[in-house]
Amino acid sequence: MIQVKDPQCLLTPSQESNHLTHNQKLKQLMIHSQKPNQLIQNRKPNQLAQDRESNQLAHNQKPNQLLQHQKPNQLLQEQEPDQLLQEQEILLNVGEESLSIAGVTGGSQDFTLVEADVSLTGNEWKRHPIVTGPEAPCILGIDFLQNGYFKDPKGFRWAFGIAAVETEGVKQLNTLPGLSENPSVVGLLKVEEQQVPIATSIVHRRQYRTTRDAVIPLHEMIRELESQGGVSKTHSPFNSPIWPVRKSDGGWRLTVDYRALNEVTPPLSAAVPDMLELQYELESKAAKWYATIDIANAFFSIPLAAECRPQFAFTWRGVQYTWNRLPQGWKHSPTICHGLIQAALEKGEAPEHLQYIDDIIVWGNTAMEVFKKGEKIIQILLKAGFAIKKSKIKGPAREIQFLGVKWHDGRRQIPTEVINKITAMCPPTNKRETQAFLGAIGFWRMHIPEYSQIVSPLYLVTRKKNDFHWGPEQQQAFAQIKQEIAHAVALGPVRTGPDVKNVLYSAAGNNGLSWSLWQKGPGETRGQPLGSWS
Question: Where in the numbering of this chain does the Reverse transcriptase domain appear (predicted)?
C-alpha cells in the first residue's frame, strides 16, 4: 500500500471495463479539454518557453494531452470549498506492460502501465490504468492543466498536476538506536581540549538590546548549556555582545557578535571545502537515493583549553559567562569543527560521503545501500562523542535537501519553499530591501540564463551615488526574475563517456556577457543544462 504524503496529483477516473487494449488504456490517460470551463489559462503564450527543461515530454505532438504521474501513485480529491482535503490511499498492482514516449527534444523515456484500485469515497473501490515513472519531467502544457479540474460522475472535483509521494516500507536512518529526541542535546567529542589562536589585544564590547522574542529562549539555552558544561560563569577583561539568530524552524541560535574579536585574532589556514565544489561532486554521482546527517550542536561538542576561554566571554542579565566549548560566531570555529569531524570519520573508516562542517550526505543506487552507509557514519560519530538528533536525520529518500539545494537523480533544483518565498516578495521600497532581494535570488543565478542582464536595473538603484527610484524598468526586472526563479530548470547530472558532448553557448548584449554549459548525449537535440553564468 502506498499512502499519498503530498496530495496534489490527479488522475482521470474512468468507468470502462478492466479488459482494455493498449491504445484504450492510453486514452484513459489523455486529458480532453474541449469544454472552456475545464481549463483556466492564466499565462501568456510566450511563457511556455520558460518550461524549457530538456526532458519535456509530449505524445503524438499533442503537448497538452498527456499527464505523467510521478512515483506510481497519487490523487487529490478536491471537494467543495467547505469540505476538507483528504489523503487517499492507492493499492498498485504493477504490470509488465510498458510504454515509450518520445520527447520534443528527440529523446525518449520508458514508462510503466499499472492499474490502481482507487477509492474516491472511502467505501467504493474502482480500478484505473495510469502511467508511472521514476521522476516527474516537465510536461509541455502542464502549466495549463494545473489550472483545470475534472468532475467525476459523483460530482467530486479533481485537479491536474504532478507531486511526489513517499513509499512506505523503506527503512529510515532515524529509527537507529542512540539518536536523541532532546532538542537541546549536546555531545562531547572524545579529544584533547583544543588549543586555539588567542586574540592579540583585549576586546570589550557592551551588550546591546536584544530582540524581545529571543529573551526567554536565550535564557533557557544558557541555563541548559551551563548544566551541560558548555558555558560557565567567569570574570574576564574580554566581553562580546550576544547576537541571537533565528533558525529556519522558528527557534533561536545562541551566537555571540565576535566581529571585533575576529579582527584581532591570528589567522588559521581554512580547511572548509568550497560549497559549490561539493555541489559539482555530488552532481557527478547521479545517485538514485540519498540520506543526510546533521550533527547536533557540533561546535558546542568540542572542548576548549582553559587558557583559550577568557577571550570568548559574554554577559547575560548582569552575569558574565564564557565558553568551555567552541563558540558560534568566532571566525575559526567552522574550520576547527570541520577538521575534527573529518578526522573522526577517517579514523572510523567511514564509507564514501561528502561533508560540509557538520552536514554530511551519503548516496547510492538503492535505499539499502544508502541505509548501510548512513548507519556506519552515525555509529562512528556517536562513538566519537557527538550527539545526533532524530529530527536531523533524513532518508534514505529519492529526493533530499543538502546545503540548501534540492537533489533528485543527481540534479540540482531550487527547493519549492525557496521559490514560494521569493515569488511572494513585494517590490522593494528602499535600497536595503532591494539588496535583500538580490541576496535571496543571487545564490540561484546558475539556474537562470542571462541573470545579470535581467537584474541589472535592480543593481542600479542600490548604488551609493544613485538615489532610490523604483520605476517601470525596475518593476519589469523584478517581475521577470521572479518568473524565471519559478520556472528555473534543474541542473545536471554531469555525464561522462565518449558519446557525451559538452556544448558552451555564449551571448553578448548591452548589459554584458552570458554563457551556459550543456551536455548532449546520443539522440538528444538540446541536452542537459549544467549551469548558466553572466
Answer: 226-407
User: Are the beta carbons of 196 and 336 closer than 8 angstroms?
Assistant: yes
Amino acid at residue number 263: E
Residue 266 has pLDDT above 90, yes or no: yes
Least Cα distance to 90 among 174, 16, 163, 172 occurs for 163
Rounded CA-CA distance 360/373 in Å is: 11
Residue 171 CA to residue 221 CA, distance in Å, equals 33
Task: Return the C-alpha cell found at 274.
Answer: 568550497
Which CATH number is 174-405's, of 3.40.1670.10, 3.30.450.30, 3.30.420.10, 3.10.10.10? 3.10.10.10
User: Residue 353, CB half-sphere, CA atoms under 13 Å: how many?
Assistant: 31
Least confident interval from 9-23, 152-166, 414-428 = 9-23
**Quick check: 289 pLDDT over 90?**
yes
Is the omega angle on the peptide bond into residue 493 within 30 degrees of 0, that is, cis?
A: yes
Q: CA-to-CA distance for 455 and 512, rounded, in angstroms? A: 11
Residue 323 is inside which H or E element, if any?
Answer: strand 319-323
pLDDT tens per residue, range 373-387: 999 999 999 999 999
Phi-psi map region of 122: left, alpha, beta (phi>0 left; psi -120 to 50 alpha): left
Greatest alpha-carbon pair distance for the chain in Å reads 85
Residue identified by cell 525596475 is 474
Q: Strand 231-233 to strand 319-323: parallel, antiparallel, or no bridges (unpaired)?
A: antiparallel
pLDDT over threshold 50, residue 63: no
Q: Facing residues of 194 across strands?
A: 304
Reported pTM: 0.65
Asked whether 440 and 422 are in contact (CB, 8 A), the reply is yes
The DSSP annotation for 266-278 comes to: PP----PPPHHHH
Long-range CB contacts (< 8 A, 24+ apart) of 219-226? 219/316, 219/317, 221/184, 221/252, 221/254, 222/254, 222/316, 222/321, 224/184, 225/186, 225/254, 225/300, 226/321
Domain ranges in the chain are: 2-159, 174-405, 415-534
Q: How many C-beta atoms lie closer than 10 Å to residue 462's C-beta?
A: 17
Least confident of 207-216, 327-336, 340-349, 507-516: 507-516
User: Residue 178: exposed, middle, or buried by beta-carbon count in 10 A (0-12, 13-18, 19+)?
Assistant: exposed
